[in-house]
From TrEMBL:
<keyword id="KW-0479">Metal-binding</keyword>
<keyword id="KW-0378">Hydrolase</keyword>
<dbReference type="InterPro" id="IPR036971">
    <property type="entry name" value="PDEase_catalytic_dom_sf"/>
</dbReference>
<dbReference type="InterPro" id="IPR003607">
    <property type="entry name" value="HD/PDEase_dom"/>
</dbReference>
<feature type="domain" description="PDEase">
    <location>
        <begin position="1"/>
        <end position="347"/>
    </location>
</feature>
<dbReference type="GO" id="GO:0007165">
    <property type="term" value="P:signal transduction"/>
</dbReference>
<dbReference type="InterPro" id="IPR023174">
    <property type="entry name" value="PDEase_CS"/>
</dbReference>
<protein>
    <recommendedName>
        <fullName>PDEase domain-containing protein</fullName>
    </recommendedName>
</protein>
<dbReference type="InterPro" id="IPR002073">
    <property type="entry name" value="PDEase_catalytic_dom"/>
</dbReference>
<dbReference type="GO" id="GO:0004114">
    <property type="term" value="F:3',5'-cyclic-nucleotide phosphodiesterase activity"/>
</dbReference>
<dbReference type="GO" id="GO:0046872">
    <property type="term" value="F:metal ion binding"/>
</dbReference>
<dbReference type="Pfam" id="PF00233">
    <property type="entry name" value="PDEase_I"/>
</dbReference>
Length: 367
């Protein structure tokens, strides 16, 4: 399964979890670090690396429907797939100004990306930043209401890395370790949806406005169809970080490009997590229940077409314009958007179709 997934855009991490004794993240992480040559290149301690991945994996709560170890593994695979199918690292690493050893810098970038994917939702409790802030959660108090989840994921994961038995980077030069840590921090903080628009807008501006966007209804943008040579090579560290943040955001939303049945399974899980938070908001007496989180109203399944039009296709369109290898991802996203369009018809028929999807996956709206 992993060997086949190495050169594929697709990986069913639910099946991977079933095949590995519920260790999809650590199994995939060890495989990719070895197969990508990172263990050998940097002389990483395999035992420390394995322990790190196992501890991080255990920090993902299986009771959380969406932000769990299977999601982290899916994001890691998507990140690998983009790096493996493109010259992304070769184009971005020079702009980061990490030194003259280009192959080493590209490998450091790849390692940082895989680590970021592994830890980006570490110890997630299935609750949004807004919920943590509005409920005066301890994490919100600690991080001053800013990027609460993301700050916790990072701080807790780096605390794991500092343990002697988990510090697989102990042998790296201090400068390299700082570079990896810095990029991991940028990528994870950039995954906060509250900064989504600012990141994508800044990236499109850096690209000169030439890329991005998609037409409503799931059509891929003409730039991805016609400008076969369109690429973006960052000139500054700031542009390089923007590029990588957009890539990481696409990987974080990677289920939107997976085969239809697997994609719908992920949306159902996200919806269940949202409804669970909505239930908590009602218990706490919140004046307003968060959007899509009230199980008595429409959920994530009912709103996917709009999400694709306003968030997904513009995001993947921006990446596909700058990184030709990502055009396949845009095409896959557009194909799923068309499937949602088929469901998005007359209200009664739509409701029946959505109910059928929930029933097929054993995830009814009201439990």
């Amino acid at each position: 399964m992993l060997t086949e997934a190495y050169r594929s855009w697709q990986l069913d991490t639910f099946s991977l979890a079933a095949a590995t004794g519920n260790q999809p993240l650590s199994s995939l992480g060890m495989f990719l670090f070895r197969a990508s040559g990172l263990v050998e290149r940097f002389g990483l301690d395999p035992q420390c690396l394995a322990t790190f991945f196992l501890v991080i994996e255990e920090g993902y709560d299986d009771a959380v429907s969406y932000h769990n170890r299977a999601h982290a593994a899916s994001v890691m695979h998507a990140m690998h797939a983009v790096l493996n199918a493109s010259d992304l690292a070769k184009r971005v690493a020079p702009a980061l100004a990490w030194g003259d050893d280009a192959p080493r810098n590209e490998a450091l970038l790849k390692m940082a990306c895989l680590i970021a994917a592994a830890v980006h939702d570490y110890e997630h409790r299935g609750l949004s930043n807004d919920f943590l802030v509005n409920s005066a959660d301890d994490r919100a108090m600690l991080y001053n209401d800013r990027h609460v989840n993301e700050h916790h994921h990072l701080a807790a994961a780096f605390a794991v890395l500092r343990r002697p038995e988990c510090n697989f980077m102990a042998g790296l030069p201090a400068a390299d370790a700082r570079r990896v840590r810095g990029l991991v921090i940028e990528l994870v903080l950039g995954s906060d949806m509250s900064v989504h628009s600012s990141v994508v807008d800044a990236f499109q501006c850096a690209c000169g406005g030439a890329f991005g966007g998609a037409t409503p209804g799931g059509a891929t943008p003409s730039v991805a169809q016609e400008a076969d040579e369109a690429t973006f090579a960052p000139n500054t560290a700031e542009e390089a970080l923007l590029f990588m943040k957009v890539v990481f955001k696409c990987c974080d939303l990677g289920h939107l490009t997976l085969d239809w049945d697997l994609h719908v399974r992920w949306v159902c899980r996200l919806e269940q997590e949202f409804f669970s938070q909505g239930d908590k908001e009602k218990e706490l007496g919140f004046e307003h229940i968060s959007f899509l989180m009230d199980r008595e109203k429409q959920g994530a399944l009912e709103t996917q077409a709009g999400f694709y039009d306003f968030v997904v296709l513009p995001l993947f369109g921006a990446l596909a314009g700058a990184l030709p290898a990502a055009r396949d991802l845009l095409a896959r996203a557009a194909a799923n958007r068309r499937r949602w369009a088929e469901i998005d018809g007359e209200p009664t028929a739509k409701a029946e179709a959505i109910s059928a999807l929930r029933a097929r996956l054993g995830m009814p709206k009201n439990q």
